[in-house]
From TrEMBL:
It is found in: Cell membrane. Pfam families: Sugar_tr. InterPro entries: MFS_dom (IPR020846), MFS_sugar_transport-like (IPR005828), MFS_trans_sf (IPR036259). Keywords: Cell membrane, Membrane, Transmembrane, Transmembrane helix, Transport. GO terms for molecular function: transmembrane transporter activity. Residues 16-425 form the Major facilitator superfamily (MFS) profile domain. It is a multi-pass membrane protein. The chain crosses the membrane at residues 16-35, 55-77, 89-107, 119-142, 154-177, 189-210, 236-260, 280-300, 309-328, 334-361, 373-393, 399-420. GO terms for cellular component: plasma membrane. This is MFS transporter. Its main location: membrane. Gene3D superfamilies: MFS general substrate transporter like domains.
Length: 432
């Protein structure tokens, strides 16, 4: 990836890292408050005529809608990100996500307008996915395309830190609401607070992003006339290997995270009978390990390569899949804490270098579109069905089957990473 400076003034490192971090933190906060509400609130308020299990599955189905929208966001925002620039596109993506989130907090429930309520909920969820589909790739490029030589993985991990920070804000908000409100007040209006309050965070994020310049790599591509007319077509027909291998390389990353957050929250509070606030607190401790793993993996990635860093993490994910049944049990909160901390630490190790690795698969003129597409297709393949499939597997075959599901995804991701590594070594050696 080129890091040569163009004639345009350079962004200061502090401003670049702040802009890439704060945007993804806001976006993931918005995304996770929906994930939490999809387990704790929406089954009761938007699907009340179904049984408890059916309502949860229907709610998780609306959760999956965003992952279908994310590749659409990749195409739309990626097109403009590769045509007009990273900065303006990132501002538009943040606005799309923010407005959709606030709208969820204002929605009437099934009791108010009937079946139109879950339909509107799904529409707003689509808007969230659309915005995040354009946000992530732009934030990663904002960081990596401003990085000095030898620091791409370190810079590229800052937008990745937005995921644990956004989750901590989300879980902390719901934990606080659970402590100060009774269940009736929480269901009546309390759940709306984080959705509406996210508007304040969006305003801060917009202010930061409006005060950055275009990245040197994109500015250089403009000066050299390297823009392509239809970036998505170029990606699909000119970089098919990168799309397929990149998608599978991020597959286990998505499955692991949404098993450790959405699925464990639902299973832990219903089947294992842990209190909602207690389990959210356990998850928040585990997220600290998630955050710790990200910079460690980035340091390793800059020294030994991001693909190798993800290969080691994927091997750990496979082993962790074998530990689901012995560790995730009722009546053992310290054991569950170990389970969550270990799984989320592995998540940090695979997630930290993921953005830099995907960005490196594509040339600058289609990098926004390509990296976003691979990442968000992995979301459809991995994250969208993960909570739903895991809930079904656990009910049908027991918790060990969920661990087996994770092991299979780790194998597929490992094979994709090996293929990428082989391709990169062949290019370096000058062979096809």
């Amino acid at each position: 990836m080129s890091t040569a400076a163009s004639s345009a003034p350079l962004n200061s490192p502090r401003r670049v890292l702040a802009a890439s971090l704060i945007g993804t933190t806001i976006e993931f906060f918005d995304f996770y408050i929906y994930a939490t509400a999809a387990v704790l609130v929406f089954p009761k308020l938007f699907f009340p005529e179904s049984s408890n299990d059916a309502a949860l599955l229907q709610s998780l189905a609306t959760f999956a809608v965003a992952f279908i929208a994310r590749p659409v966001g990749s195409a739309v925002f990626g097109h403009y990100g590769d045509r007009i620039g990273r900065k303006a596109t990132l501002v538009a993506a943040l606005l799309t996500m923010g407005l959709s989130t606030v709208a969820i907090g204002l929605l009437p429930t099934y009791h108010d307008i009937g079946v139109a309520a879950p339909l509107l909920l799904a529409l707003c969820r689509f808007g969230q996915g659309l915005g995040l589909g354009g946000e992530w790739g732009g934030a990663v490029l904002l960081a990596t395309e401003n990085a000095p030589p030898g620091k791409r993985a370190w810079y590229g991990m800052f937008p990745q830190l937005g995921a644990p920070l956004g989750f901590l804000l989300s879980a902390g908000t719901f934990l606080l609401l659970g402590r100060v409100l009774d269940d009736a007040s929480f269901l009546a209006w309390g759940w709306r607070v984080p959705f509406i309050a996210s508007a304040l965070l969006v305003i801060v994020g917009l202010w930061v992003r409006l005060n950055i310049r275009e990245t040197p790599d994109f500015q250089k591509a403009l000066e050299q006339g390297q823009r392509v007319r239809l970036p998505m077509r170029e990606v699909l027909f000119g970089h098919g290997f990168a799309v397929l291998a990149g998608t599978l390389a991020a597959f286990a990353t998505f499955v692991l995270f949404y098993l450790m957050t959405v699925f464990t929250l639902g299973y832990g509070t219903s089947t294992l009978a842990y209190a909602r606030e207690d389990f959210l607190l356990l998850q928040m401790v585990g997220i600290l390990f998630f955050a710790a793993g990200i910079p460690l993996a980035a340091l390793y990635g800059d020294r030994h390569g991001t693909v190798k860093a993800m290969l080691w993490a994927t091997a750990g994910i496979f082993v962790f899949g074998l530990l689901f049944q012995p560790l995730f049990q009722a009546g053992h909160p310290w054991q569950v804490l170990l389970f969550l901390s270990l799984g989320l630490f592995l998540m940090g190790l695979t997630y930290g270098p993921c953005g830099t690795m995907l960005a490196g698969l594509y040339p600058v003129q289609v990098r926004y579109t390509g990296a976003s597409l691979s990442f968000n297709l992995a979301g459809i393949l991995g994250a969208a069905p993960a909570p739903y499939a895991a809930t079904w597997l656990a009910g049908k075959f027991g918790i060990a089957a969920v661990g087996g599901y994770l092991c299979v995804t780790a194998l597929l991701t490992g094979l994709a990473l090996l293929a990428i590594n082989r391709r990169q070594r062949g290019v370096a050696a000058g062979t096809p």
